[in-house]
Design a protein that fits this description.
α1 crosses α7 (237-247) and α2 (71-85) crosses α3. The protein has seven helices and eight strands. The protein has helices spanning 39-45, 71-85, 97-112, 141-151, 162-181, 207-211, 237-247; strands at 6-8, 23-28, 49-54, 90-95, 120-123, 194-199, 221-226, 258-259. An eight-stranded mixed β-sheet has the order 1-3-2-4-5-6-7-8, with helices on both faces. β4 (90-95), α3 (97-112) and β5 form a beta-alpha-beta unit.
């Protein structure tokens, strides 16, 4: 795609046209994360779904750019980019911080009267609150690093390398500053179905917190609970892919999720 915000994943052997015409799944990464966080998922949902992963400023191939230290700033920029770059049907998948951003982008599109996502997949994040969550209010770099280690994830070992840590810390700092300052401003609920996803051993987000997302849509909300922690997606990718394809009606089966 031509926009600087989006990265597409297609099989090297099939070329860029392999997913032409497929429904697009726009994926929003977690705090400190980049577009590559969704590479595994993209492999599991193709060819019926084309993953378009968001690349926030300040990481990976945008590491020389200043991060945007505000959820609203990120959502404003991405709503403009979605409107400019996406045509045809699409859905949003946001994990952790990405769930909040995906929801805020969908709200902005709805408020403008623009075509929006067919479904929101909201993963590893409690429903919006009028006060910041305690696990987002981190005052020092040491607090941020302790939280990152607590959350776990397959890439956690990189933080033992001082050079890598120095490179990623500005992005983590900016992302947690954005989360720590985010508060929900009450607005009309979306008329878009939600699928909320959570690991049963998430150390900071209880299942009851994600169930609260049902208050933010007038459409159906389904819940999926997976074995694993905050980054269950890294090890339960095939299961998540089945949920996504089923919810989007691409497997020929009825959605088996439990409504909440």
């Amino acid at each position: 795609m031509s926009g600087e915000w989006f990265r597409r994943f297609v099989p090297d052997s099939q070329g860029a046209s392999a997913t032409g015409g497929a429904l697009r799944l726009v994926c929003f990464p977690h705090a400190g994360g980049g577009a590559s966080a969704f590479l595994r998922l993209s492999r599991e949902v193709m060819p019926g779904i084309e993953v378009v992963a968001v690349q926030y400023p300040g990481r990976q191939d945008r590491r020389n750019e200043e991060p945007l230290a505000g959820i609203g700033l990120l959502a404003d920029a991405l709503a403009d980019e979605v409107r400019r770059e996406l045509a045809g049907p699409y859905a949003f998948f946001g994990h952790s911080m990405g769930a909040i951003i995906a929801h805020e982008v969908a709200l902005r599109l709805a408020e403008r009267g623009d075509p929006g996502p067919e479904r929101l997949f909201l993963s590893g994040r409690g429903a919006p609150s009028t006060t910041p969550y305690a696990h987002d209010r981190l005052r020092t770099d040491a607090d941020v690093l302790a939280m990152v280690r607590k959350l776990g994830g397959t890439a956690n070992a990189v933080f033992d390398d001082p050079d890598v840590l120095a490179m990623v810390m500005p992005t983590l700092r900016a992302d947690y500053r954005a989360l720590g300052s985010y508060v929900w401003t009450p607005r009309p609920a979306l008329d878009v179905p939600f699928t909320v996803l959570i690991g049963d051993a998430d150390p900071v987000v209880p299942v009851t917190a994600v169930a609260g997302w049902k208050e933010f849509t007038t459409a159906r909300t389904d819940m999926e609970v997976f074995e694993g922690g905050h980054f269950y997606l890294d090890v339960r990718t095939k299961e998540v892919a089945r949920v996504v394809t089923s919810a989007l009606g691409l497997d020929g089966k009825r959605n088996p999720a439990v409504a909440v």
